[in-house]
Amino acid sequence: MIVLDGISDLRTVVREWRGDGCSIAFVPTMGNLHAGHLALVEQAGSLGDRVVASIFVNPLQFGPGEDFVTYPRTLDADRAALEKLETDLLFIPDVQGMYPDAIDSTTRVDVPALDNILCGAHRPGFFTGVATVVAKLFNMVQPDTAVFGEKDYQQLLVIRQMVKDLSWPIEVAGVPTVREPDGLAMSSRNGYLTPRERSKAPELYRILCDVAGKIQAGESGYPALESKAMESLSQAGFRPDYVSIRCATTLAQPEPGEPDLVILAAAWMGTARLIDNVRISAS
Questions:
Q1: Average pLDDT, whole number, for the chain?
Q2: Residue 37 annotated to the active site
Q3: Please, is 169 exposed, middle or buried when counting C-beta atoms within 10 Å of its C-beta (0-12, 13-18, 19+)?
Q4: What is the pLDDT of residues 18-61, one digit of tens each?
Q5: pLDDT band at 283, cuts 50/70/90?
Q6: For residues 204 and 274, what is the distance between their CA atoms, to the nearest angstrom?
Q7: 256 vs 20, residue with greater confidence
């Protein structure tokens, strides 16, 4: 596995691969890799001749008081895991390389159709930070395919919308959420949970599945279902930010009879902000 931290060196390798007629699949991450990340890398291996992964904890997507400084960084273990999967190249830029001028004045990418709702409403500027860093990485790696997890469902749609709006020839592939045996969606922030909190955390997924079951059974009073789910999360020890039933393709409020829905939620358990979603067909 090639390991690089410089943009120029990265472009040189990519140029050589292109000259050999190779396609490139890309997996951007913030590191602290778990089985969910590795599933993305495995999927990338089936979508491109060469697989590039990146590790970069992006300061632009962390708000004041969030966990940028304490976000888990496990580069040695991450590198070993990627080597085991025969990843072709690992790109590990630093903040200076990604933002060579003042970060506060750097050019930003906004996706206004999607970035101010749900998680965007609770974390102002978050999706601008995500879109900006992914846009920069896309320009550096120039992949044919980029792979993202469906656990971060709103993020996946933001990236797809950005690619569409900016006319990039990149296929954005989604990979289903990888879960622990008890249903908890895998996340680097699960490490913030105490043992007691960890035992409660799977209730988030269970409650979303309960909402999905009620919709599939014919219930259509979505606001009431959302409110009841919020109450259930609070009773389970969470501090919920939202539970929302949306159109799965646009995240718009669903029209009556919408056949493709997604139930999204974000809730705090202790110091960990957990997100999850369940997709269903209401037909």
A1: 96
A2: yes
A3: exposed
A4: 999 999 999 999 999 999 999 999 999 999 999 999 999 999 99
A5: low
A6: 8
A7: 20
pLDDT tens profile 96-155: 999 998 888 899 999 998 999 999 999 999 999 999 999 999 999 999 999 999 999 999
181 falls within a domain: no
- Other C-beta atoms closer than 10 Å to the C-beta of 120 total 21
Report the C-alpha gap between 87 and 41 in whole angstroms: 8
* C-beta neighbour count of 202 within 10 angstroms: 18
Residues 6+ apart with CB under 8 A from 235: none
Question: Tokens 């790696």 identify what position?
Answer: 141
Identify the bridge partners of residue 82 per DSSP, sorted by sequence position: none
247 near 281, Cβ under 8 Å? no
Which residue range is the domain that position 208 belongs to? 188-277
What CA–CA distances, in Å, run from 172 to 43, 122, 150, 183?
Answer: 12, 25, 11, 26
Rounded to an integer, the average pLDDT of 235-253 is: 97
Q: Which of 10, 26, 37, 222 is catalytic?
A: 37
Q: Report residue 234 CA to chain centroid gap.
A: 25
How far apart are alpha carbons 264 and 233 in whole angstroms? Answer: 13
Q: Which residues, 6 or more positions from 247, have their beta carbon under 8 angstroms from its beta carbon?
A: 253, 254, 255, 258, 260, 261, 262
Tell me, yes or no, whether 148 and 259 share the same domain.
no
Say how many domains are in the chain.
2
CATH of residue 268's domain is: 3.30.1300.10
Mean pLDDT, residues 161-177: 98
